[in-house]
Design a protein that fits this description.
Layout lengths: L7 H14 L20 E7 L12 E11 L2 E6 L9 H10 L8 H7 L2 E12 L11 E6 L1 H12 L11 E3 L2 E8 L2 E3 L4 E2 L4 E2 L5 H7 L13 H14 L23 H8 L26 H21 L3
Antiparallel strand pairs: 1-4, 1-7, 2-3, 2-4, 4-5, 6-10, 7-8, 7-9
Helix pairs in contact: 2-3, 5-8
The protein binds zinc ion (ZN).
Zinc ion (ZN) binds next to helix 2.
Length: 318
């Protein structure tokens, strides 16, 4: 199944096709608040904001399922295709390697191919010890792991919060507390503030202008053929002898001279590896860009949110 039947020309074509789908340059990492870079035992206070996509059932968080494929020393993050309702070559590889009955049984490879999960939200950063850029926006995206997500859910279920935490008026700030658990970073003591507060009324318009449609910031999607190539390249990079009965996970002989350029080509896709640093408890946020939602739909959602905020302020006599 890992045998690559595609010719180099096919691959190049697939890469180039995808390339035209990406925006040139990749400044998306600047849109993310890298809370995990904070010093241990410090707290960053943020105020989560609603998703511009009002059809998002989670309201202000989207799930991001992805694979992180280590290809020639580079970490390439791509969307799990099952997130998009398609067959996913990386998931399929992982399942086969984990299958004890399979002649290809290899848990290390199963783990390397296994899909990861993070969550994407957006927030105003109210307080942090992290040095922020002079041109920092009001609204940042955040990409965090299940630890923070589960704590958010637990706090929302606790009964300690008066209101929906993302309300502009009367919402609840979230305190991202970074600590050490053994040698690993932990965010388990992060929490919503039980005290409801208002975002400054004169900042609301600017905040709404900067808000994002969160689903556009999940891991970059490549098509199944490209992902299969990446899976093969990642298996190749793991080294060691190929397990028996697995077609050698490599490109065909005719492609060998070009082998070193595969990662470069993938890099050209714009799925550059995130700067993960040494943090192992939360995924680093630098997904590749995806085309923005049509301005019209984003605009009307913004108008609705702005109008609702204004009505709320009026109702409160502000
Ligand atoms: Zn997958």
């Amino acid at each position: 199944m890992f045998k690559n039947k595609r010719s180099l020309a096919d691959l190049v074509s697939a890469f180039e096709t995808k390339n035209t789908d990406t925006t040139s340059g990749n400044d998306d990492w600047k849109k993310f608040f890298h809370f995990y870079k904070a010093a241990v035992d410090t707290t960053s206070t943020v105020r989560f904001l609603p998703d511009l996509d009002e059809d998002n059932p989670r309201g202000f968080v989207v799930e991001n399922l992805y694979h992180e494929l280590n290809i020639n020393g580079r970490k390439e993050r791509v969307a799990c295709l099952r997130m998009h309702g398609e067959d996913c070559p990386a998931c399929k590889a992982s399942e086969q390697f984990y299958d004890e009955k399979s002649p290809n049984h290899n848990p290390a490879k199963g783990k390397a191919m296994y899909r990861k999960k993070s969550y994407i939200a957006q927030a105003v950063v109210l307080e942090t010890t992290i040095q922020m850029r002079d041109d920092a926006p009001l609204v940042f995206l955040l990409d965090f792991g299940p630890q923070i997500y589960n704590k958010m859910i637990a706090d929302m279920k606790s009964g300690d919060l008066e209101n929906n935490p993302v309300e502009f008026q009367g919402g609840h700030n979230f305190r991202i507390r970074k600590s050490l658990n053994g040698t690993e970073n932990s965010y388990a003591t992060s929490s919503f503030s039980p005290k409801p507060t208002d975002l400054p009324a004169d900042m609301i318009d600017q905040i709404v202008d900067q808000m994002y449609d969160l689903k556009n910031y999940r891991a970059k999607r490549v098509d199944a053929a490209v992902m299969e190539t990446m899976v093969n390249a990642a298996l190749n990079s793991m080294g060691g002898p190929a397990p028996q009965n697995v077609a050698k996970p490599t490109v065909q002989p005719a492609v060998q001279p070009e082998q070193k350029t595969v990662a470069q080509q993938i890099g050209d896709l714009g799925v550059d590896s995130p700067d993960v640093g040494t943090d192992t408890t939360v995924s680093a946020a630098q997904p590749a860009p995806t085309p923005a939602a049509p301005a019209s739909s984003g605009q009307s959602a913004r108008d609705v949110i702005r109008a609702r905020a204004a009505a709320l302020r009026a109702g409160r006599g502000e």
